[in-house]
Recover the amino acids of this structure.
């Protein structure tokens, strides 16, 4: 347990909750896109140990309830995506709350809402957040809302890590749209979001902390190397092999006025959804310089040298270990526990 007097004794016992890629074969190539490699778990473990924490590992499989029921950790560093269902990201936080275990990151309610893209957009519309027009399709026979204008991007409504967003995810006519809807409904067995494609520049913004202490990092722009593509999208294949397809700039080459607008919008979204400790928010900047909210990830990936969140914080001067410490300390402060110096 906590010991704050002797520097030779770990200050906290921290558990890491996670899901691992298993190489499961599936018709959907991106079946395990949201899960982590053991290298990411070990990187977080090493960062926590560098803070003089004792670390325990908890894979969030079917016996996670019993594992957490028995544990005596002071705090969980949660990166678990959960296993099945629209509310899967809420599984570990809900169990942690049952047993009164502090944990990093957003709670089960925020995670459930945010994974559902349409529900998130409906809530944020009450805060006057601009987002592309969209429609949720539950069956192939559904009629398209006549207000939607092509081109349209098609994606599963409740997935992260660009699951279901392929290089050919944009439809220019009803024939292409029908094929994409059919493919996604069959592969992902869930409602599909059809959304107007916003032509323009793509950005992602990292936020850390809570309420009036929250920090919004400089927006990172995603540049596509193949400028001849008709529709550039941050697809699963692009993310998987990002060094081949894209390059990043942070801080982005935008005016201070646009940067301030984007950062203030990100913070408004973060607080509206009651995010905690850290999150990442995606935007498109239209050719008319309007900022469109695309989606939020309140449980962003932390793979070193790969995930956008630690990439942004590194561009802004934080090492990987400092980023992990920042997230942990944010949670410790929330629980009125002494932060790690």
């Amino acid at each position: 347990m906590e010991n704050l007097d002797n520097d030779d004794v770990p200050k906290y016992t921290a558990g890491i909750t996670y899901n691992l890629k298993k190489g499961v074969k599936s018709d959907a190539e991106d079946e395990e896109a949201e899960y982590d490699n053991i290298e990411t778990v070990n990187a977080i473990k090493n960062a926590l140990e560098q803070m003089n924490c004792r670390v325990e590992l908890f894979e969030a499989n079917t016996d996670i309830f019993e594992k957490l029921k028995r544990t005596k950790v002071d705090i969980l560093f949660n990166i678990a995506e959960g296993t099945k269902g629209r509310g899967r990201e809420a599984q570990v936080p809900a169990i942690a709350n049952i047993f009164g275990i502090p944990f990093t990151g957003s709670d089960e309610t925020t995670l459930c809402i945010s994974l559902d893209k349409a529900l998130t957009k409906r809530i944020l519309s009450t805060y006057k957040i601009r987002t592309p027009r969209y429609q949720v399709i539950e069956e192939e026979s559904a009629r398209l809302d006549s207000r939607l204008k092509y081109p349209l991007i098609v994606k599963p409504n409740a997935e992260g890590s660009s699951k279901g967003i392929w290089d050919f995810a944009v439809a220019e006519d009803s024939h292409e749209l029908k094929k994409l809807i059919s493919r996604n409904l069959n592969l992902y067995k869930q409602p599909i979001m059809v959304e107007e494609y916003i032509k323009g520049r793509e950005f992602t913004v990292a936020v850390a902390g809570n309420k009036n202490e929250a920090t919004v990092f400089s927006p990172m722009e995603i540049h596509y190397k193949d400028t001849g593509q008709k529709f550039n999208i941050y697809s699963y294949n692009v993310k998987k092999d990002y060094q081949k397809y894209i390059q990043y700039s942070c801080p982005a080459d935008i005016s201070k006025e646009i940067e301030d607008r984007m950062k203030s919008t990100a913070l408004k979204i973060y607080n509206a959804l009651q995010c905690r400790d850290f999150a990442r928010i995606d935007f498109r900047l239209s050719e008319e310089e309007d900022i469109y909210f695309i989606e939020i990830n309140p449980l962003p990936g932390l793979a070193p040298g790969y995930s956008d969140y630690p990439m942004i914080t590194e561009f802004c001067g934080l090492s990987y270990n400092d980023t992990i410490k920042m997230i942990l300390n944010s949670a410790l402060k929330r629980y009125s526990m002494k932060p790690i110096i």
About this structure: Residues 113-128+199-333 form a domain with the D-amino Acid Aminotransferase; Chain A, domain 1 fold (CATH 3.30.470.20). The chain has a mean pLDDT of 90. The chain has three domains: 12-104, 113-128+199-333, 134-196. Residues 310 and 320 are 6 Å apart (CA to CA).
